[in-house]
Amino acid sequence: MDDGVQHPTPDPVVEAVRQIRAHGERVTVARTAVLRVLADADEHLSADAIFAAVSRAAPGVHRTTIYRALDALERLDLVAFTRLRHDAATYHLAGHLVGGTHVLVRCRLCGTVSHAPGDLLDEVASRLAAEQGFALDPTAVALTGRCETCTKHVGPLDHTHVNKPPRHP
Amino acid sequence: MDDGVQHPTPDPVVEAVRQIRAHGERVTVARTAVLRVLADADEHLSADAIFAAVSRAAPGVHRTTIYRALDALERLDLVAFTRLRHDAATYHLAGHLVGGTHVLVRCRLCGTVSHAPGDLLDEVASRLAAEQGFALDPTAVALTGRCETCTKHVGPLDHTHVNKPPRHP
DNA sequence: CGTCCATATGCAACAGTGTCGCATCTGGCC
DNA sequence: GGCCAGATGCGACACTGTTGCATATGGACG
Prior knowledge:
2 copies of one chain form a homodimer. Residues 155-169 of chain A have low confidence and may be disordered. Chain A has 2 domains: 1-100, Orthogonal Bundle (Arc Repressor Mutant, subunit A); 101-156, Dna Ligase, domain 1. The first copy, chain A, is 41% helix and 17% strand. Chain A starts with 11 loop residues before the first helix and ends in a 15-residue tail after the last helix. In chain A, a hairpin with a 5-residue loop joins strand 4 and strand 5. In chain A, the strands form 2 sheets. Chain A has a 3-stranded antiparallel β-sheet with strand order 1-3-2. A 3-stranded mixed β-sheet of chain A has the order 5-4-7. Chain A contains 7 helices and 7 strands, in the order ααβααββαββαββα. The first copy, chain A, is α+β, with helices and mostly antiparallel strands and 169 residues long. Chains A and B meet through helix 6, strand 6 and strand 7 of A and helix 1, helix 5, strand 6 and strand 7 of B. Chain B binds a DNA duplex (30 and 30 nucleotides) through residues 25-31, 46-48, 60-65, 67-69, 72, 86, 88-89, 167-169.
């Protein structure tokens, strides 16, 4: 293992598999299939979507196994997930496997999800590390609020009297 | 008693009710009960816990109504919720109703949830506002990562056999 | 105060997501 | 090849949140 040198991993799956082995966990077809699916799709996927994709590549893998594989991979810090509103969780490879990271930003009103630069939370991460020894994973964060459009449309939410439009549909 | 002077709202429920009316929405017993419960409990509550508490104060309110009330209140920016891991959503009054805010910080490995000061995300909020016009709600954010204790243990989880013990019975 | 209508609620059944127990199979190692 | 802890297949389950429809209620207006 040449962990001393920092070189870009050509295939995150290879690196992930190596880490699974390094931790004494088993490398199975289901787990590699999940990793491959997540690596190929560079967007966040629901467990159901992962199940569908894995079934295509390796038929016979059960739905439950997907969940268990995702759980195992998450404990190994190879996979993370976020929750937007009440929808299903969306999984993705951990940030340290894919280099580029981004932070999810969701508008509570219109539901639109956009991306913010990955370094957005760098200072927050530093502060958490210094004050609590907490290692933040920026890729697993979903920031909730109101997007520009909705803020303009609905109006400022401060306590200054909201101008109530007469009920006209 | 209430003039133009800006002073902290004594009762967030009163303020919330005022805003419901100001938006032309209806003030119902279910909605006020939900607000009251959330205001009394200064911690985050699951929908089920809210249902139980509301049932005590105003029996006869249906479970579905709790969800619909929470949904309506959320659209009015009076209530927000967070999702920790795969558990149920936990609801709370919007930050602007209750002066003090805090940010939830969760360790992915041990599951411990701690609080960070509410101003932790101030800079992030400013940046999002400036760059995207996005109004962040810091109280609706759950930061995921690894706590100090788990990081020191270096291993991903409890069964961390990084260096495998010789296995023979 | 009484009427009216949009909408909030009660009710029950449903949908989706994730979990559990147990028998069987497989990966890693001898 | 053979062994065994751990992973998987399978089914059934638990839980959270949603929907359609009939009815009750809020609040505005006369």
